[in-house]
Amino acid sequence: MRYRSSGSSSSSIGFSLTTIAFILSMIFMVLKFCGKIAWSWVMVFLPLIIAVGIDIVVVLVVIIIFVISNLKG
């Protein structure tokens, strides 16, 4: 008997930019707490700051495209 997929690929593992940034920040936090790195907290959280910044830019671009397309039509 064959099972049909419902269109989602839940069996494959995919990492988004936010997930990778979160994992990196967690690694940097552990290293900072253990005293292995002497970075400022801004540097520790920089991967998350960059990921959130990119997400905000993408959302703003989508909103701008949506508004422009509605003004024309």
Name its key features.
73 residues; mainly alpha; 3 helices; 66% helix; elongated
Described by its quaternary structure, the protein is single chain
Distance between the termini: 50 Å
The secondary structure category is mainly alpha
Tell me the number of structural domains. Answer: 1
Helical segment count: 3
Tell me the Rg in angstroms: 19 Å
What is the element string, with H for helices and E for strands? HHH
Give a written overview of the molecule:
Helix content is 66%, strand content 0%. It is an all-alpha fold. Helix 1 packs antiparallel against helix 3.
Can you summarize this structure?
By secondary structure, this protein is mostly helical. Helices cover 66% and strands 0% of the residues.
Give the topology.
Elements: H1 17-33, H2 41-44, H3 46-72
Helix pairs in contact: 1-3
